[in-house]
Amino acid sequence: MKKKSSLKGYTWRTFLLEVVMLLLCSAVVLPFYYLVVSIFKTPREMGLNPLGLPEALNLENIKNAWSQIHFLRAFVNTLTVTFSTLIVVILFGSMSAYAVARRKGKFYKFVMLYFLLGFMVPFQTTMVPLYQQMQRFHLINKLYGLIVLSTGSCVFAFFMYQGFINTVPYELEESAIIDGAGPFKTFLQVIIPVSKPVFATVFILDYVAYWSDFMWPLLVITDAGKRTVQLGIQTFFTEPPVYYGPIMAALTIASVPMIIMFLFLQKYYVQGISTSGIKG
Can you tell me the distance from the alpha carbon of 253 to that of 247, in angstroms, rounded to the nearest whole number? Predict the structure, then answer.
């Protein structure tokens, strides 16, 4: 019996779809390729052959970026703000979502509406009042002030967790309650173990948001020793001339932690997106 041809069913429509996908892939990969190859180029090479490979392995751009931004100190500041905020957001976001998802009273409906209204208000409308409040409480130019301010985004985590918890069968919790577990113990022993995908999703999305945040650090941090990575990169544009080689190097170094984190958690990220109700 002859084997069916592997090309059977391969139509012009399939070919055109593959071409479109390749073009879309190129639109994503090409900027990243340009970013990486530009690290090792001189200003002359970047101008004459932007997309070509570098003539030699030039590390001056990396050295200049590292020294001008004081990358080690900026990394420590950014990691401190990012992970401190993540701990608070994940803790309070998940616990409040569990309480609202499992309670049906009017009070919890009001809490849900309250969070929803806060989520709908544009950031720009609250920026000035929040800044004034931070001045009143002496939180300007302090890393813990930036952490307190950033935890306001736990509303997003709340809706992510609530959407997932609503899909968890209540029978799992009933068995723990029969064994004498209270609400907090049930949350720890039942909800958290089955919620790993949404925890990873919230972690990745908020990690990227806090790591790459520029607006609030720009408004709040004025001391050079407390700058985050994004504020450090901005210093390349403060005085002319602007050299794009060190900028490309700084952007690449700053993106490495986000790429590593996503590679480790991408399996849970996809599961969390599909089960928490977020659509692209």
Answer: 10
Nearest in space to 81 (alpha carbons), one of 146, 154, 153, 141: 146
pLDDT digits 0-9 by tens, 196-246: 888 888 888 888 889 988 888 988 888 888 899 999 888 888 777 888 888
What phi and psi, each to the nearest 5 degrees, are found at residue 58?
A: -95, 120
**Helix-, strand-, coil-residue percentages of the chain, each rounded to 5:** 75, 0, 25
Q: Which two tokens stand for residue 241?
A: 């001339």
Distance between CA atoms of residues 209 and 83, nearest Å: 12
Q: Which residues contact 53 (CB under 8 A, 6 or more apart)?
A: 37
What does pTM read for this prediction? 0.80
Is the N-terminal amide bond of 241 cis, ω within 30° of 0?
Answer: yes
In the chain, DSSP assigns E strands to none
Could you tell me if 206 and 153 are in contact, meaning their C-beta atoms sit under 8 angstroms apart? Answer: yes
Helix pair 12-39, 60-69: axis angle to 10 deg = 70
Whole-angstrom Cα distance, residue 54 to residue 191? Answer: 52
pLDDT score for 238: 78
Q: Which 3 state secondary structure label does DSSP give 23?
A: helix
- Return the number of other C-beta atoms located less than 10 Å from residue 213's C-beta: 22
Q: State how far the alpha carbon of 97 is from the alpha carbons of 104, 175, 205, 225, 246, in Å.
A: 13, 21, 17, 37, 44
